[in-house]
Design goal:
Oligomer: single chain
CATH superfamily of the largest domain: Immunoglobulins
Number of helices: 5
Structural class: alpha+beta
Distance between the termini: 45 Å
Largest sheet: 7 strands, mixed
Mean pLDDT: 75
Radius of gyration: 18 Å
């Protein structure tokens, strides 16, 4: 699998739409990658908020339990016989060993819809010389636009057409000069009709 699990694959995993071999690959990667686990948790929370109906009310806690098992028990947790006690890790130990730096986002705010045709993403700098990659997707996790920059702002290109009154996902990944990685986690962008 690539360096990180693509957003659309994480969404499909949470939806239960993957083949068995794909599930194994995603779970193996999530057991080792704190950044992707963080994104999977963000996507799962977003999907849970957007869905309605009894089916999802039952499935969401089950998906969260499976994800929690992967995160804190490790890749062997679901083999027959259950995990040996030596494989269990406390939440605090996991956080200390696998701490992921956070990219603080400034705009757009989740509680303020933006014009569908004019807005700018803004985040705080981590360190001089850091490289950033912003990714924007639709609600299913399908990529719509991305940009790589050393700046802390990015404005979608003119050919990126967004529908008004819709929700989109976006996140910023960063690579610091010393090789450490950081992520903003997934954020929600809602649009309103274009500016007059």
């Amino acid at each position: 699998m690539a360096a990180h699990v693509p957003s659309e694959l994480i969404a499909a995993y949470i939806d239960g739409a993957l083949e068995d071999h794909e599930v194994c690959e995603v779970e193996d990667h999530l057991s080792l990658c704190a950044s992707c686990r963080m994104e999977a948790g963000d996507v799962e929370r977003f999907i849970r908020r957007r869905r309605t109906g009894q089916r999802w009310k039952i499935a969401a806690p089950a998906a969260a339990a499976v994800l929690a098992g992967i995160i804190f028990l490790g890749p062997g947790a679901f083999e027959s016989g259950g995990p040996p006690s030596s494989n269990l890790r406390s939440i605090q130990d996991a956080a200390e060993r696998e701490a992921v730096l956070s990219v603080d986002v400034v705009a757009p705010r989740e509680d303020e819809p933006v014009p569908a045709d004019a807005f700018t993403f803004v985040w705080r700098s981590l360190a001089a010389g850091s490289a950033y990659r912003l990714t924007m997707t639709d609600e299913s996790g399908r990529p719509l636009w991305s940009a790589e920059t050393s700046d802390t702002t990015a404005t979608p290109e003119a050919d990126v057409e967004l529908d008004p009154d819709r929700a989109y996902l976006w996140y910023v990944d960063a690579l610091l000069p010393d090789g450490r990685e950081a992520t903003s986690g997934v954020h929600i962008l809602t649009t309103r009709p274009a500016s007059p």
